[in-house]
Design brief:
Shape of chain A: globular
Radius of gyration of chain B: 13 Å
Number of strands of chain A: 12
Radius of gyration of chain A: 14 Å
Oligomer: heterodimer
Largest sheet of chain A: 6 strands, mixed
Number of strands of chain B: 11
Strand content of chain B: over 45%
Largest sheet of chain B: 7 strands, mixed
Distance between the termini of chain B: 37 Å
Number of helices of chain B: 0
């Protein structure tokens, strides 16, 4: 079946540190991959996505590359800010049309100044 | 462009009571989803509509949960009777529908506490 596995949190970093949040997936076919972010007290927001192998999604300084050979979609940012503190969810959408997202459990990031 | 609207934002009920949540998707979005997010976990799909037809309700506990999407726009999710384990955030999302890379847009959620 389809599933997403994220690294356990919480992740605690100092401002300007490098961030990596690991995400691996299991899926048949060619799913689309997403990172969503949930800031405190707010709803889920799309951060970035990639729809085919070797695509790189990027937004707000965050990047993730769709690696089919390692079934991974790791989230990275070169220099985190306090405002990046949030919960990050990796998700996949199976290749069949009309299917819903399958989420990982989420990784909490806390950035201190 | 207005986002996905949900109400109420918070609800506290006693077990065995009933509760209903409302969702208004982004205008023009054919597909509507209800997810349940239990504390510390990722959202899990409860039901998916395409226009006013059900696409997937395989994970909906049908003995107590029901949902409808009249006229292919607004949707309501009902729980009757509620159990303690139904305490969660209920998220509504919408998308244009169709392609695998289709982006889902989420509402702010309704936080349900069952006492």
């Amino acid at each position: 079946g389809n599933s997403v596995t994220q690294m356990e949190g919480p992740v605690t970093l100092s401002e300007e540190a490098f961030l990596t949040i690991n995400c691996t997936y299991t899926a048949t076919g060619y799913p689309s991959l997403f990172w969503y972010v949930q800031y405190p007290g707010e709803g889920l927001q799309l951060l970035l996505k990639a729809t085919k192998a070797d695509d790189k999604g990027s937004n707000k300084g965050f990047e993730a590359t769709y690696r089919k050979e390692t079934t991974s979609f790791h989230l990275e940012k070169g220099s985190v800010q306090v405002s990046d503190s949030a919960v990050y969810f990796c998700a996949l959408k199976p290749s069949q049309a009309g299917t819903a997202l399958i989420f990982g459990k989420g990784t909490t990031l806390s950035v201190s100044s | 462009e207005a986002g996905v609207a949900q109400s109420p934002r918070y609800k506290i009920i006693e077990k065995r009571q009933s509760v209903a949540f409302w969702c208004n998707p982004i205008s023009g979005h054919a597909t509507l989803y209800w997810y349940q997010q239990i504390l510390g976990q990722g959202p899990k799909l409860l039901i998916q509509f395409q226009n006013n037809g059900v696409v997937d309700d395989s994970q909906l506990p049908k003995d107590r949960f029901s949902a409808e999407r009249l006229k292919g726009v607004d949707s309501t999710l009902k729980i009757q009777p509620a159990k303690l384990e139904d305490s969660a955030v209920y998220l509504c999302a919408s998308s244009l529908g169709g392609s695998g890379g289709d982006t889902q847009y989420f509402g702010p959620g309704t936080r349900l506490t069952v006492l």
